[in-house]
Amino acid sequence: MTAFRTHDELVDAVSEATFDRPPAVVANAHITGLGVARALAAHDVPVIAVDRSGDGAAPPSAAVAFAGEVTYPLDDQAGFREDVEALAAAAGTDLVAFGCMDEWVHAFADTDPEGVRLPFADREIIDDVLDKSSLYRLAERLDVPYPETVFLDDGTVEERVDRATDRLGLPLVVKPAFKREFEEAVGTNVLEVETAEELRDILTRARAAGIEVMAQRKIDSVRGQDHSLASYVGPDGDVLSLVGNARVRNPLDFGTSCLVERAEKPVIEQRALDVLRETDYYGISEAEFVYCPDREEYLLLDINTRPWKWIGLPVAAGANLPMAAYASVTEATYESPGLTDTRWVYLPDYVELLATNSGVRDRLTPTDWRAILSGDIQSYADLTTGVYRPSDPDPAYQVLQSTLGVTDYYCSC
């Protein structure tokens, strides 16, 4: 089990190690970071997991060589840069950065720490993709369908309320241009609004926080039909990708994915890559689409310019996106062995949903459950698990501690 060290202790430990290739520095160190660490460690890449606390899932993993504290970039970006540069100097070789939440990606891109290689596009390009205001306007130009949207970046609060309700009616959905800052301010990245008074309150709060928001027509989407393109696009335009179908979310409609299956949806891949190519984005990303039965179309919702919670699905299916990104900035090589069909499940969320919602059908088979419970899941080709891994049990124990309230770690992933 890897110890989570203070920053000074981490620098000392790294300085005593010898590296035959650039280590990866993975931030933050929770579920997504664990998936990235395991993907890289499978190819003998040393992983340094960093975070503001040691209570995430990744630090105790056998896939992590070193784990420790760095300054949280939203508190002190200059301090973050200084901490990361100290790690690179201690390693005696460059580090390869993997940001697993938006604020960490932005910190690496904004500060460009000396001795750190970035396997993704610069901040200006990232913002063009992350900012839903610019993303939807680009989608409009490319004829990529997206939810009917009213942009609320000008006018008084009353004018914006009237504009949104006149066009979209009620209820409607409010989203931010940048979801992470909105989540920090109001506790979520999407709000369903039932009344004009609710909308007026949200717009007032957003204006006070300096956050741009937009209104969207509420989509009566079909559960189990959300699809995403999981991809790595290289600086030369090479693409490694697959489509994942979020069959089950918890909560059901707006929740996080807890059961995802590989799918064949060429239209999803084409539309997502059209947008990525138009922006010149390269790096790992997830392009999210929802199916709208009224329009009989898959609508682009969002693009995450980083790894995400179910990053283990493409890795298990033969598309190791983190390793492809690592190879793009080092002397390492990576070639996909070819894609296979598989599924990914995050057991804590999935089991909770089955236990608390009588209307949800278990999509796992008795054979699946036997593979999980017997510990044979790691050699089971049809299913992979997030966090739980019999040969690497400490991350699952860490999540169990958080679930029981023994430790406290929050991450929207």
UniProtKB/TrEMBL annotation:
SUPFAM superfamilies: Glutathione synthetase ATP-binding domain-like (SSF56059)
Keyword flag Ligase: yes
Domain ATP-grasp: start-end pairs: 136-330
Keywords on record: ATP-binding, Ligase, Nucleotide-binding
GO MF terms, alphabetically ordered: ATP binding; ligase activity; metal ion binding
Protein name (record): Carboxylate--amine ligase
Top-rank taxon, per record: Archaea
Regions crossing the membrane: none
Organism: Halovenus carboxidivorans
